[in-house]
């Protein structure tokens, strides 16, 4: 989250860690707030073992900057809403579905001078993905917010291995005597990784469990458990937008329609039509997406 007030930082300068940017001089001395207790604890671990890191000395120089701040308490986090001038807030969680980032978004999404910078993957259905896809308004904790801040993304910060690195990691552990499970990632990504493993792992031993599938791992291989007769979700609906997203979109559409009505009478007519449609079980039309 970048709050701008008559100040900018060139995008290429944000492609490295802000802490490293301090140490190397690539970033000006602007306030950076790490608004995540878990990130604060993780930073202490990295600092403790900095000698084992590739650029540990640079990390330590950056951590000593007087412009770097860590919020510990709820009160300190809330106080960030009152910070003035150009500053950067690093907040959790990365996909915006929980954590302190939601409070930061409530304070900044509707401001023209703000920038929301995503530095990681945003899964389908998450608030982060909805913002990335260009939503003009969103609902957060039951409230509607217009999206006026700039939405930007960088894909260089991920600590996850890519497909080639995962394939090489698996090759170093051959032979795989039984099954290999692919359980994390969207369908296209897992299909791509499975294709990379052709000729390395027997295709019949590369398993991609579906929701509610279970296995027992034994000395002779994985044994499939009986799956529930009624799955929680059909396979084709997993990792897709669901009725919660539809309901949120409907609330936003209704509010837009009411605000754009010519007068109070028109709003009352629209409300009565919606109420009648709900009572009669009719489909309520919404604006095209």
Give a structural overview.
The chain is of the alpha/beta class. The chain folds into three domains: 2-153, Rossmann fold; 163-237; 243-280. The protein is built from ten helices and twelve strands. The strands form four sheets. A six-stranded mixed sheet has the order 3-2-4-1-5-8, with helices on both faces. It has a two-stranded antiparallel ribbon with strand order 6-7. A two-stranded parallel sheet has the order 9-10. Strand 6 (137-140) and strand 7 (143-146) form a beta hairpin. Helix 1 crosses helix 3. The longest helix is centred in the C-terminal third of the chain and has 18 residues, at 243-260. The protein is flat, with a radius of gyration of 24 Å.
Quick structural summary:
With 289 residues, the protein is of the alpha/beta class.
What keyword list fits this structure?
35% helix; flat; Rossmann fold; 3 domains; two-stranded antiparallel ribbon; alpha/beta
Q: Please, how many domains? A: 3
The Cα radius of gyration reads 24 Å
Order of helices and strands: EHEHHEHEHEHEEEHEHEEEHH
Unreliable stretches, pLDDT < 50, 5 or more residues?
4-15
Structural category is alpha/beta
> Which sequence of strands runs across the widest sheet?
3-2-4-1-5-8
The CATH architecture classification of the largest domain is 3-Layer(aba) Sandwich
What about the largest sheet? 6 strands, mixed
Taken as a percent bin, the fraction of beta residues is 5-15%
The count of β-strands is 12
Helix content: 25-40%
Distance between the termini: 27 Å
Q: What would the principal axes of the Cα set say about the shape?
A: flat
The DSSP helix count reads 10
């Amino acid at each position: 989250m970048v709050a701008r007030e008559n100040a900018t930082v060139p995008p290429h300068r944000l492609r490295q860690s802000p802490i490293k940017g301090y140490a190397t001089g690539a970033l000006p001395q602007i306030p950076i707030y790490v608004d995540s207790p878990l990130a604060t604890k993780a930073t202490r671990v990295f600092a403790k073992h900095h000698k084992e890191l590739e650029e540990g000395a640079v990390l330590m120089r950056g951590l000593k900057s007087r412009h770097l701040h860590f919020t510990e308490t709820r009160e300190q986090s809330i106080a960030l809403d009152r910070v003035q001038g150009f500053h950067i807030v690093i907040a959790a969680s990365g996909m915006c579905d929980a954590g302190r980032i939601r409070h930061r978004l409530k304070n900044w999404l509707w401001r023209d001078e703000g920038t929301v910078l995503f530095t990681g993957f945003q899964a389908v259905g998450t608030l982060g993905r909805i913002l990335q896809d260009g939503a003009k308004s969103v609902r957060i904790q039951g409230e509607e917010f217009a999206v006026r801040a700039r939405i930007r993304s960088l894909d260089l910060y991920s600590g996850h291995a890519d497909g080639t690195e995962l394939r090489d990691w698996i090759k170093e552990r051959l032979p795989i005597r039984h099954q290999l499970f692919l359980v994390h990632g969207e369908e296209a990504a897992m299909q791509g990784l499975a294709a990379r493993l052709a000729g390395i792992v027997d295709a019949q031993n590369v398993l991609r469990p579906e929701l509610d599938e279970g296995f027992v791992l034994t000395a002779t291989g994985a044994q499939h458990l009986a799956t529930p007769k009624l799955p929680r979700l059909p396979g084709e609906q997993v990792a897709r937008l669901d009725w919660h997203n539809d309901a949120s979109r409907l609330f936003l559409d209704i509010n837009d329609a009411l605000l754009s009505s010519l007068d109070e009478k028109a709003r009352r007519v629209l409300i009565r039509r919606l109420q009648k449609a709900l009572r009669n079980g009719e489909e309520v039309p919404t604006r095209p997406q």
